[in-house]
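HUMAN: Ready with one sample?

ASSISTANT:
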Amino acid sequence: MKQYRLPVTVYQPGAETENKFMAEVPILPGCRAWGDSLAEALDNLRSVAGEFLLSYKEHGDPLPREVEETAYELVGPKVATEVTVYL
């Protein structure tokens, strides 16, 4: 099984984002999601990004090179985790 670490760009609520947080994966054109909170936008984006990747695979299309470069194989039990903090 592969895990992908996709870069995300987040936009603050405003007129351009329908007054919601918007998160997108720039290396997957059109892959974006909105939410009333940052957490909701990111949760929604995880789901949307997963569906994007499944769609590529189900249609037999290769993933964009930039996406493949973020992938790594999951082997055995995971012993460490990461948290990203933005200040």
